[in-house]
Protein backbone atom coordinates (compact mmCIF):
# COMPACT_ATOMS: atom_id res chain seq x y z
CA UNK A 1 0.00 0.00 0.00
CA UNK A 2 1.44 3.35 -0.91
CA UNK A 3 1.59 6.29 1.44
CA UNK A 4 -1.21 8.13 -0.41
CA UNK A 5 -3.48 5.07 -0.17
CA UNK A 6 -2.72 4.78 3.52
CA UNK A 7 -3.48 8.47 4.04
CA UNK A 8 -6.73 8.19 2.06
CA UNK A 9 -7.79 5.14 4.07
CA UNK A 10 -7.05 6.98 7.32
CA UNK A 11 -9.04 10.04 6.20
CA UNK A 12 -11.95 7.86 5.11
CA UNK A 13 -11.88 6.08 8.48
CA UNK A 14 -11.96 9.42 10.30
CA UNK A 15 -14.87 10.65 8.18
CA UNK A 16 -16.84 7.45 8.77
CA UNK A 17 -16.16 7.56 12.51
CA UNK A 18 -17.24 11.23 12.71
CA UNK A 19 -20.41 10.45 10.75
CA UNK A 20 -21.22 7.48 12.95
CA UNK A 21 -20.68 9.56 16.10
CA UNK A 22 -22.95 12.27 14.69
CA UNK A 23 -25.66 9.70 13.91
CA UNK A 24 -25.31 8.18 17.37
CA UNK A 25 -25.75 11.61 18.97
CA UNK A 26 -28.84 12.35 16.87
CA UNK A 27 -30.43 8.97 17.64
CA UNK A 28 -29.69 9.37 21.34
CA UNK A 29 -31.31 12.80 21.31
CA UNK A 30 -34.39 11.49 19.51
CA UNK A 31 -34.59 8.53 21.88
CA UNK A 32 -34.43 10.83 24.90
CA UNK A 33 -37.19 13.03 23.43
CA UNK A 34 -39.41 10.01 22.75
CA UNK A 35 -38.96 8.64 26.27
CA UNK A 36 -39.71 12.07 27.74
CA UNK A 37 -42.88 12.42 25.66
CA UNK A 38 -43.99 8.91 26.64
CA UNK A 39 -43.49 9.77 30.31
CA UNK A 40 -45.55 12.94 29.83
CA UNK A 41 -48.30 10.95 28.11
CA UNK A 42 -48.32 8.41 30.94
CA UNK A 43 -48.71 11.20 33.48
CA UNK A 44 -51.54 12.76 31.47
CA UNK A 45 -53.32 9.40 31.20
CA UNK A 46 -53.00 8.85 34.94
CA UNK A 47 -54.43 12.33 35.56
CA UNK A 48 -57.27 11.69 33.13
CA UNK A 49 -58.13 8.38 34.82
CA UNK A 50 -58.18 10.11 38.21
CA UNK A 51 -60.41 12.91 36.89
CA UNK A 52 -62.83 10.41 35.32
CA UNK A 53 -62.96 8.44 38.58
CA UNK A 54 -63.62 11.67 40.51
CA UNK A 55 -66.40 12.64 38.10
CA UNK A 56 -67.96 9.20 38.39
CA UNK A 57 -67.88 9.48 42.17
CA UNK A 58 -69.47 12.94 42.03
CA UNK A 59 -72.18 11.61 39.73
CA UNK A 60 -72.87 8.71 42.05
CA UNK A 61 -71.90 6.15 39.44
CA UNK A 62 -69.38 4.47 41.74
CA UNK A 63 -72.13 3.43 44.15
CA UNK A 64 -74.29 2.08 41.33
CA UNK A 65 -71.47 -0.05 39.95
CA UNK A 66 -70.45 -1.50 43.30
CA UNK A 67 -74.04 -2.36 44.26
CA UNK A 68 -74.60 -4.50 41.12
TrEMBL record:
Q: What is the lineage of its organism?
A: Eukaryota, Metazoa, Chordata, Craniata, Vertebrata
- Which Gene3D superfamilies did the record assign? 1.20.5.430
Native source species: Salvelinus namaycush (Lake trout)
GO terms assigned for molecular function: transcription corepressor activity
Family indicated by similarity: Belongs to the HSBP1 family.
Protein name, as recorded: Heat shock factor-binding protein 1-like protein 1
The GO cellular component terms are: cytosol; nucleus
Q: Which residues form a coiled coil?
A: 38-65
Cited InterPro entries? HS1-bd
